[in-house]
Specification:
flat; 22% helix; alpha+beta; nine-stranded antiparallel sheet
Length: 188
């Protein structure tokens, strides 16, 4: 009888231990920029709209019109501006200049984090992001960079979508000159 009772208790413990004990997902503290960008990437990848893209590297500039765009790579820095991670829950100062604007600024005690600031302005009618701006900065002994990302969205024939975006900044390696860059895209 003891053996049966022992087996029952052991089996119960094993079954209880195999259940998914992951903590329930926490609600976002900050605006869900990553979710919005992910939806835009899926939509733009499916539609393949014409885009006018201007590239500048230091003093050289080029312009092209294309439908062949890897949107995941094109909007990667906007995805990197996601600050809704568990480890970052208390890293940013939140201000609301008005009811449609979310402003997040990195606290001084967290200066090693990449995303320095993030601002999201919502459209008053749709409550969708009308403007997303962020500053990303990396500075260490091997590499220094600063990137300013800016995305404007609005109502189009196919619903709410990215209309323009711009990424600009610089990269600096020790013993080399600073390389400045800018990429601007206009979605048709």
């Amino acid at each position: 009888m003891r053996f049966v009772l022992f087996c029952f208790i052991a089996f119960s413990l094993i079954v209880c231990g195999c259940q998914n004990t992951a903590p329930p997902t926490q609600p976002n503290v900050y605006y869900d920029v990553a979710g919005y960008v992910k939806r835009q990437i899926a939509d733009l990848s499916a539609r393949k709209p014409l885009i006018t893209k201007t590239l500048r590297m230091n003093t050289k500039t080029s312009r092209q019109n294309t439908r062949d765009v890897n949107w995941t790579r094109e909007l990667e820095l906007f995805s990197q501006a996601d600050i809704n991670k568990q480890a970052l829950r208390s890293s940013y100062q939140i201000t609301r200049p008005d009811s449609l604007t979310y402003q997040y600024t990195l606290k001084k005690s967290e200066e090693k984090l990449t995303v320095r600031s993030l601002r999201v302005q919502l459209d008053s009618a749709t409550r969708q992001p009308r403007l997303i701006e962020a500053v990303l900065q990396t500075d260490n002994a091997l590499y220094g960079s600063e990137r300013h990302v800016w995305m404007e969205s609005g109502l189009a024939r196919n619903g709410w979508q990215v209309q323009r975006y711009k990424v600009s900044g610089f990269q600096k390696l020790p013993y080399f000159d600073k390389s400045e860059f800018a990429v601007e895209g206009v979605v048709q």
